[in-house]
Amino acid sequence: MLPGVKLDLSLAAGELTAQLVDIESVSGSEGPLAGAIEAALRDCGHLAVERDGNAVVARTDLGRPQRVALAGHIDTVPVAGNLPSRLDGGLLYGCGTSDMKSGVAIQLKLASEVTDPVVDVTYVFYDCEEVESERNGLLRLSRNSPASLDADFAILLEPTGGVVEGGCQGTLRADVRARGERAHSARAWMGRNAIHEAAGILDVLRSYQARQPTVDGLAFREGLNAVGIEGGVAGNVIPDECVVTVNYRFAPDTSAEQAAAHVRDLFGRWDVTVTDAVGGARPGLDSAAAASFAAAIGGTPRAKLGWTDVARFAALGVPAVNYGPGDPALAHSRGEHVPIVAVAECEARMRAWLRG
Amino acid sequence: MLPGVKLDLSLAAGELTAQLVDIESVSGSEGPLAGAIEAALRDCGHLAVERDGNAVVARTDLGRPQRVALAGHIDTVPVAGNLPSRLDGGLLYGCGTSDMKSGVAIQLKLASEVTDPVVDVTYVFYDCEEVESERNGLLRLSRNSPASLDADFAILLEPTGGVVEGGCQGTLRADVRARGERAHSARAWMGRNAIHEAAGILDVLRSYQARQPTVDGLAFREGLNAVGIEGGVAGNVIPDECVVTVNYRFAPDTSAEQAAAHVRDLFGRWDVTVTDAVGGARPGLDSAAAASFAAAIGGTPRAKLGWTDVARFAALGVPAVNYGPGDPALAHSRGEHVPIVAVAECEARMRAWLRG
Predict the structure, then answer these.
(1) What pTM value is reported for the model?
(2) Is this complex's ipTM strictly greater than 0.85?
(3) Does any CB of chain B come closer than 8 Å to the CB of residue A77?
(4) Touching check for B287 and chain A: CB below 8 Å?
(5) Fewer CB within 10 Å, N side or C side of chain B?
């Protein structure tokens, strides 16, 4: 795209979504889209706008007793032949339609048009959510200017199918290593086959009974899975090592430390290296602002099973939920799409809530 | 080494081994060693010498009723910090000492000194045995000039610890593929984990009862093993594919086709792709020349479990055995070595046999 494409915030949220989708913004290349968002928000006289890298923060300052943050990431996974966007039978197709430029379009509509909300609002647009944690724009903002994320309650407009999703599960990755002894494969009995030994690791995974605990009223569902396996030296060698990479998704009543201890215990017969562990976030629906939001949106809140950036708000002491028009099952798929009517409905409900 | 190093065939076989080892000849770089061997053999008036690439064939033509081939490869696996050779306590250390320049030294000693053998002898020195089959010098010779390999009986001087090893087992490699269905690992139950499914493949391997059949009087020992495993898409994805690479070593009473059918049958629940299958060779110890050789060497012949180039002679209709001074367990190891006394003993027994 050419630098300086101008966003038209007077479009309906669905049409604005299409405009956002057509400004390609794969993680690390959000510059043009961040620029367009910043320019559009600076045109709104009632907002204070700041830019940090490819993140943009815009806020009302009306002296309201409560402040709410509406946050969304503006990057996408790599394009998979699904740009430009395409409208077909009321469904808008294209990279980022569901995850999560439809949510970003709603943020922009509310930011520009709800000039007199009943709570003060901080609109956060950030980069690099789809890549490794260290590059995450919300993490960078929380380090560079934690005050800019200060709020009584936060909503991430991640795809949830229009249902309020509370909290999120934690995630841990570990390498579980079976060892053996090399030998020529023509004389296998002189060695010990580490791949055969790894069958024991897979047996633990296959027989694992995952918990489904209720936390703060929401039902979570854990999972323990192999996400990778690797072993082998050469076609004529009994291998001396086989590594199973395990991913443990755990409910927010369990800390990252407890999760690591559980995995070490389960695989006690083998070498376990925890390579990555981050806790989840409790639903936080008992806070006043969260409860009023959930009541205004209606429906029955459910637990968020995937890890999301609500955990970053939780770490700052800000209760947070996920709520957006996209379908989480479509995220990252080539056929990603969002129903135009869902975008409009989501926007209308949030608009009504902000207007009191 | 400098081009043109001259071999001294008057050295004892052990010392000649050291000279050969010190002329580095990793597969594909056998030129200098092949040149030195060719030059040394051309100096022997009683031999007709031919060169084919980095292979050298030298033959007596005495009109004897029987012809025997003595064959050895002159290449080695990559050097592992174990050159130049080093003599320590009667053991000669270095890359290729066992596999199989000690055998090559014996060939050279016999070729130059046994000018009047009771059988005609074809001495074959060839390249690229330690790499993929298509580059194998013996295979090339069998295509370029099959007549040069014509014989009633062949002996490969591969390491056998001074015992006659008959025939060889076949080897087959197959990819056994478990399939599943991708899903986000936070919602694993929406997919099917192919790595967990592959546990069934490993169960078949772990419970497999390998045959130990007797073929032509020699006891073989089969084996079925995983030599590789690979699966996984990303750290947050339930994988839809896991491939176990299986190596089947089968006795020479079974053809490559029968071996493939057996493996397909065992893993019938999964996709099986046979990537490589080559039959073994029956011991052939019932041929007159083989029996006389085995009797002259003494000891109890045993089965060769690894695949060797005896199968190439067998494919040409030439019964063949392995017999050499090296220790097969040391082949390809950094600490590879050969006892000087074993080289001398092996040479003496073969010399006596050739002299009648």
Answers:
(1) 0.80
(2) no
(3) no
(4) no
(5) C
